[in-house]
Amino acid sequence: MKKFIFIFALAIAAVACDTQPDASLPGAEKSGILNIASGDITFTTEGGTSDVKVLSTDNWTARLVQDNSANKEEWCSINTKSGIGDEANPSIIKVTATPNSSYADRTAKLYVSSGNYNKSITITQKQMDVINVTVTQYNVVAEGEIVNVEVKSNVVCEIAIDPAATWITRVDGEGRAYATSQWRFKVAPNTTGEERQATIKFSYKTLSQTVTIIQAAASSEE
User: Fold this and answer.
1) CB 57 within 8 A of CB 30
2) Tens digits of per-residue pLDDT, 64-73?
3) In which band, very low, low, confident or very high, does the pLDDT at 156 lie, cut at 50, 70 and 90?
4) 188 contact partners, CB below 8 Å, separation of at least 6
5) What is the sign of the dihedral through the CA atoms of 35, 41, 47 and 50?
6) How much is the pTM?
7) Sequence-ordered alpha helix ranges (H) in the chain
């Protein structure tokens, strides 16, 4: 009798396993499927709107979690927080980002849930790039000196000294985001007998700031 009950129990378990949905079979989506047919989103500094396709056979909900560590601004939004769809008629979530006027990238997470299924994508918006030179003109004595140029930037600047100004050389300096950095340039003594000047350009993509170095002529001996 015990042997019969054991065999009967095994038969029931086998039937139960056979009734579980196989995601590889046609029509398996009827058992509940959730998929986000979009990858992570990256917005430019200017912001904009991007569509996220949700493929689901059951009701789903969405929530947006923003990283507001840089500021408390609600910069990202979605146009809907629930819906239902399938492969033939997917739901669309419109994600909108406002312009980023901060000096740091910012991120958010979009979570979509349906039953026991959970999906998420990351939303990133690029920082507003900035280069600010504190002083744009330096007057240097004829004997030469070290000029400390203060730059406030959140990007790695390219530095170009006027090619004709062989009398100016870069000593050292380091930039980091977002911070005030010091760039040191050595100005050699002026032995030309005339005042001279040159420029140093700090640039990144379409941004640029220029510093002018004016060096006095040596005093003539009477």
Assistant:
1) yes
2) 999 865 556 7
3) confident
4) 144, 167, 168, 169
5) negative
6) 0.65
7) 2-18
Q: What is the pLDDT of residue 74?
A: 87
Contact assessment for residue 38 and residue 121, using Cβ atoms and an 8 Å cutoff? yes
Give the strand pairing for 168-173 and 137-140: unpaired
- Beta carbons of 171 and 131 less than 8 angstroms apart: no
- Integer Cα distance of 66 and 123 in angstroms: 9
Please tell me the distance from the alpha carbon of residue 45 to that of residue 48, in angstroms, as a whole number.
9
Confidence of residue 89 (pLDDT cuts 50, 70, 90): confident
Q: Can you give the pLDDT at residue 221?
A: 59
> How many other β-carbons are positioned within 10 Å of the β-carbon of residue 71?
12
* Buried residues in 26-56 as b, exposed as e (16+ CB within 10 A): eeebeeebbbbebeebebeeeeeeeebebbb
Proportion of the chain above pLDDT 70, given as a percent: 79
Contacting residues for 86 by C-beta, under 8 A, at least 6 apart? 29, 55, 56, 57
CA 24 – CA 29 distance, rounded (Å): 9
**Residue among 71, 123, 77 at smallest CA distance from 102:** 71
